[in-house]
């Protein structure tokens, strides 16, 4: 079968199409016929060998930690009812960029009828994260919410969830295409954080007070600037560092400004709730309250192009491989 491997740590060009033996399900495992492979920004940094949060995989490796498709075979001690079912499957840190992938039966999530595989995988991964962030930040009706990287996979869902909670939303991103998408998603305002005075615009929109909740998925200078305009009594929630640098706020400074900082370590506690949050997101999607933005898809052999699109910031919403 065809797989894509990372042959060495480096740029997107290190992703190489090749052949691998057919996988066999072991005890408590299944083989999934992969139709969709998801990917994240973090996985591009693992490929570069610069991610600070995960151990480096042994080379060469097959990237991809989440796939969607049908169960084509099962191992011992697996209920035969899984055969032929449409599922989302976690493959661990690696193994998803392949025509077939092995997953533990405990890592399977049945896809509800009426939901397409690409939408399901976006709602399961980015959606559960967004749902968890919103729950932790305790958004209330009338709150002003600032979402960084608001045209990305998680950010676009945060915009919609905040609106559904009755909040007013400022979406921040870079470039006209992304700002247009943010407005289409229902944001009250869209600002370009490549403009030097972008935080002045945020203050203007929020009546000079600043946002009650900030979702910081960028970090670096942008995350720091967003913290500085967060309203007194507000919440500053960190969930990413696409700039390469996590926003770290001194506790004394946070107390002085009257801002509750919910650090990136919150993500480490998300695991036990991910299934519940994914189910909530899929229910909300079925009710028409949210929709995942799938901005671009690529064939397996174009995995390098997919990673490049994520890294060079040209991607809108979620980027997927379709097999």
Tell me roughly what share of residues is in helical segments: 25-40%
Q: What is the quaternary state of this protein?
A: single chain
Main sheet summary:
7 strands, mixed
Mean pLDDT over the residues = 94
Strand content: 15-25%
Question: Can you offer a commentary on this structure?
Answer:
There is one protein chain. The mean pLDDT is 94. The radius of gyration is 20 Å and the shape is globular. Helix content is 30%, strand content 24%. Helix 2 (117-137) packs across helix 3 and helix 2 (117-137) crosses helix 8 (274-286). It has 323 residues and is of the alpha/beta class. The chain contains nine helices and 15 strands.
Write the layout of secondary structure elements.
Elements: E1 2-6, E2 15-19, E3 29-38, H1 41-48, E4 66-74, E5 86-90, E6 100-104, E7 108-110, H2 117-137, E8 144-147, H3 153-164, E9 168-173, H4 176-184, E10 189-192, H5 198-205, E11 213-216, H6 220-228, E12 235-238, H7 251-257, E13 260-262, H8 274-286, E14 294-298, H9 303-311, E15 318-322
Parallel strand pairs: 8-9, 8-11, 9-10, 11-12, 12-13, 14-15
Antiparallel strand pairs: 1-2, 3-4, 3-6, 3-15, 4-5, 5-7
Helix pairs in contact: 2-3, 2-8
């Amino acid at each position: 079968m065809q797989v894509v491997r990372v042959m060495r740590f480096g740029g997107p060009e290190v992703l190489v199409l090749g052949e691998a033996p057919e996988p066999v399900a072991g005890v408590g495992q299944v083989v999934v016929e992969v139709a969709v492979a998801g990917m994240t920004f973090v996985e591009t940094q693992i490929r570069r060998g610069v991610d600070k949060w995960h151990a480096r995989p042994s080379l060469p490796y097959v990237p991809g930690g989440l796939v969607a498709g049908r169960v084509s075979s099962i191992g011992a001690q697996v209920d035969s009812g899984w055969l032929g079912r449409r599922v989302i499957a976690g493959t661990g840190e690696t193994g998803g960029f392949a025509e077939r992938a092995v997953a533990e039966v405990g890592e399977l999530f049945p896809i509800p009828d009426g939901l397409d595989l690409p939408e399901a995988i976006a709602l399961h991964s980015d959606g559960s994260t967004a749902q968890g962030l919103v729950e932790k930040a305790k958004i209330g009706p009338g709150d002003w919410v600032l979402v960084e990287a608001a045209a990305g996979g998680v950010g676009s869902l945060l915009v919609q969830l905040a609106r559904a909670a009755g909040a007013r939303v400022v979406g921040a991103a870079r470039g006209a295409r992304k700002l247009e998408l943010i407005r289409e998603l229902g944001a009250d305002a869209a600002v370009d954080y490549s403009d030097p005075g972008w935080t002045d615009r945020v203050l203007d929109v929020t009546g000079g007070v600043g946002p009650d909740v900030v979702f910081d998925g960028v970090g670096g200078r942008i995350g720091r600037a967003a913290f500085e305009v967060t309203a007194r009594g507000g919440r500053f929630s960190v969930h990413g560092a696409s700039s390469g640098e996590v926003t770290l706020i001194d506790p004394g400074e946070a107390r002085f400004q009257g801002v509750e900082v919910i650090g990136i370590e919150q993500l480490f506690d998300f695991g036990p709730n991910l299934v519940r949050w994914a189910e909530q997101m899929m229910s909300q999607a079925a009710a028409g309250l949210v929709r995942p933005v799938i901005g671009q898809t690529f064939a397996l052999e174009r995995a390098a192009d997919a990673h490049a699109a994520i890294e060079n910031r040209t991607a809108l919403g979620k980027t997927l491989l379709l097999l």
